[in-house]
## 1
Amino acid sequence: MRINMSNKKFNQTPGSYSPKNKPEILSMAKKLQNNNTKDVYSVKPLNITWDDVYDSTGYLFSFAKSLACAVKNSPWAEYAEDIIATSGFAFRMWVSPPTFALRQPAIWSFDGQKPWVGVENGGLFCEYVGRYWGQDDIEKQKRLEAIANIKKSIDSGIPAVSWDICVCEWGLIVGYDDETQTFSVLGVSGKGEMPYEQLGKRELPLLSVLIITGKSDKSQDAILYDTKKLAVSHLKGSEWCDNAKGLESYPALIRHFEGGFNPDASWNTEYFLGTFGALKYYAWKYFEKMRQTELAELYKGVYDAWKEAFQTKTG
């Protein structure tokens, strides 16, 4: 049985209760009683775009962009801009000269999403399902668990944040159709569809799905305190990789442009400058909102410097 959940309403009339309709109603009830198949649901894609997420370079880190957009389209939209800073992403940096591999910014400790976004830092309740390298034995189990979470989130009107849904970046799952077994997706490259079966099994076969489920009673002062701690941790190089990270990213970038520039990585360096530069805007705006004047002025200068470097590179 196919059930369309696109707010369909049924108009009842006096004729609906006419005795002449009774055999048809009884027949329908009997068929339903004997139907051993599961209900098939479809949800019209949520009307969501990237327009509400400010991206000063066009390269804003796709997880941060997706997360902010999901929160913006939730009942807790007031957290949408803050969450990029309070989850720590506004302060994260790592670079990998001389190649500046494009996947480097996208790959990190995926299982850190729930504590960083959730009560431990950002103040939001969330649910997370992940499956990584060397876990093929639980692939199907985790995929089905993630699909259930995605449907639950979309049914509540909130898109799900997922890895590698149309390009090898983060994006949003905004609708689903059980009959065709496909998701409607919004990636950084545009809208599309993806089979359920491909979730976590595309170009870089890792499963990572985050949904936002609520807001905690954590105070703004407590969130600010934990954001500062997380920022310090990232600036000191608390990352998953062995590349130049945190504050060490700056001299690595400078050396690349001053003496060891690799023309083959020209577009890649543009991607890095645009990705990490756009994040600094959110650090500035968060501290400004929280009336942390000194930090706000500092990060405005940092953001302006990254933006100038990006504009210089792109002409």
Note: Residues 1-37 have pLDDT under 50 and may be disordered.
## 2
Amino acid sequence: MKDKSIANLLLAIIISLGIIFSIVVIVQNKKDNTPKIDNPFEFENITKENVTKIEIITPEWVTQEQQAAGQTINEELDNNDSQNFNKITLENKDGVWTLDNQKANNSNISSFIEISNQATVQDIVSTNKDNHSKFWVDEDTGILVKYFDKNGDIIDSFYVGKTASTNSCYIRKDGDNRVYKVSKNLTYYATLGYDYWIDIPEENSIEDQSISEE
């Protein structure tokens, strides 16, 4: 009788282990079969060490919002460009970030680079070009952001669209139809405008701060 009880116990243990093993295999197979999201972006290379120039090209709706908020607009470009785009060019010259030959706000630029570096792809929300305007990532509504290295080569370039949540937004790689939802609200930074990037006091030119090109 005792031997029979031991045999039943061993059988129960074997059956339990078999069930556990089957569950592990099923879970692992599901994990392996989960489609991986292709990531065409170079977030990991957008670092303070690599980036020496940033271009933020904003469309008319952003320019109008900035004007309504009393922000400074690049009047010359705004008046001459037929599409009414406003372009902000941030450049690192000899370790000092500049905007329009004036010292830019290093802290704000560093924050933007860090946020860009920390962004991760969460989902592909569309592959249809007709949906670009829905997410504000087409050529008319998207904010084109470009990051350059010290050689003038583009590290990454993409359209920043509308926010998806308080800490995420939609973006589209320049030249790609796929629209991605990414962590980090890059839209917030891309729409801040000239006054956010310039240092204070604004009167200080590059020459005044002894960082002029020799």
Note: Helices lie at 2-33, 60-68, 75-80, 106-118, 186-190, 194-197.
## 3
Amino acid sequence: MEREHDRGVLMEDVDIWDLEFGELDVDRNIIQEFSARHRGSVRISMGLFCTKKEFEKEKKEVLSHPIP
């Protein structure tokens, strides 16, 4: 059952685990900017993480090298 709310739609009797949110687009600059305000991973606050685009680029580069 959905009910209108001033900030969006409030969904009752729906478990958050059953919802599909799709892929997230990660912006490195925004994550690093807000990481100091929240407790969490030291890796993230120091910028020692990679976005999906960066991961796919490096994966493609690594897989392009022949195995000796």
Note: The first strand starts at residue 2 and ends at 5.
## 4
Amino acid sequence: MAVICMTASSPSTTCSAISTRWSIFHLPGNYLRTGIIRILAARLKDLIEKMGYRSPSEETLVKMISEARNKQPRELEKPWCIGACSYYNIPHDMIPLLIKIQKLKAEYGDNENVSTVLTVREAQWIARLYHVAEPLVRELPDTSESALLWLDFIASSYVQRERVSEQMNEQYPDTTDLDRLYFHSEDFLNDDVLIS
């Protein structure tokens, strides 16, 4: 990692026509990485406090950010395949649906903030939520393709909540607000539901 510093040229410099020169000092990568993590921790601390919550200390946040950054992807973050269904307790009757979603993600991924790969964790949440979410998304005025994308969107909300919960070492993800948002109303896209 290199840091570029601008220094004024001295008159004795052979390149007197150039008013400035760039000097490159090499610093260990860990030095800069640690500085960036500290800046991120300070910003996160401020943000948490602005939201009205009591923030962990900056040192604790630095430790949490470093641990999260250094964690290797878990098994659940690997791409889903049919063979994973038995091992991860994904019902086999979900396979046709998961294949359709897998194809849609490959087709629309990165175009509409959709990842290109269906992960094992996403497949688990789709299987868990399908029977309660399917009647909601079926009522949407678009095609069955968009209903599947909405199902994937709802499941991805739960996936993100579970990831955060794991980072915070919680026993299970508290999805009360997501449950209320998606399933306590007949029309989860209604402005009144989204605002409350």
Note: The first strand starts at residue 2 and ends at 8.
